[in-house]
Automatic annotation (TrEMBL):
CDD domains: nsLTP1
UniProt record similarity statement: Belongs to the plant LTP family.
Protein name: Non-specific lipid-transfer protein
Role noted for this protein: Plant non-specific lipid-transfer proteins transfer phospholipids as well as galactolipids across membranes. May play a role in wax or cutin deposition in the cell walls of expanding epidermal cells and certain secretory tissues.
Pfam family, one: Tryp_alpha_amyl
Domain of life of the organism encoding this protein: Eukaryota
UniProt entry tagged with the keyword Transport: yes
GO terms assigned for molecular function: lipid binding
Gene3D superfamilies: Plant lipid-transfer and hydrophobic proteins
Keywords: Lipid-binding, Signal, Transport
SUPFAM superfamilies recorded: Bifunctional inhibitor/lipid-transfer protein/seed storage 2S albumin
């Protein structure tokens, strides 16, 4: 094969590789399941409030709103709820009134209240 043929063959292989990458990028991805590490990182700024602090911070409410927006399916909401339940159990000096009022104070309407006895079947 001449140098010209080798260069053309390599160019064709590169074009096919680029086309494959572009096609794969266009394929819709399956929804990523909610995991507790992610939930924890979103609600961590709320810790001082749920321990009795004065009001939730903007960062706290941003995390609560983000979690609400990400948990669209029933299974996502149940997973997020179970994570919140586990997180609530691990909080020393949890103020349940503040925990219960967190979502409404952040302008989020949840089908459950954050507490030690959340019913996550909703």
């Amino acid at each position: 094969a001449t140098d010209q043929e080798v260069i053309m063959a390599r160019a064709q292989v590169m074009l096919m590789a680029v086309a494959l990458v572009l096609m794969l990028a266009a394929v819709p991805r399956a929804a990523v399941a909610i995991d507790c590490g992610h939930v924890d990182s979103l609600v961590r700024p709320c810790l001082s409030y749920v321990q009795g602090g004065p009001s939730p911070s903007g960062q706290c409410c941003g995390g609560v709103q983000s979690l609400h927006n990400q948990a669209q399916s029933k299974s996502d909401r149940q997973a997020a709820c179970n994570c919140l339940k586990g997180i609530a159990r691990g909080i020393h000096n949890l103020n349940e009134d503040n925990a219960r009022s967190l979502a409404p104070k952040c302008g989020v309407n949840l089908p459950y209240h954050i507490s030690l006895d959340i019913d996550c079947s909703v």
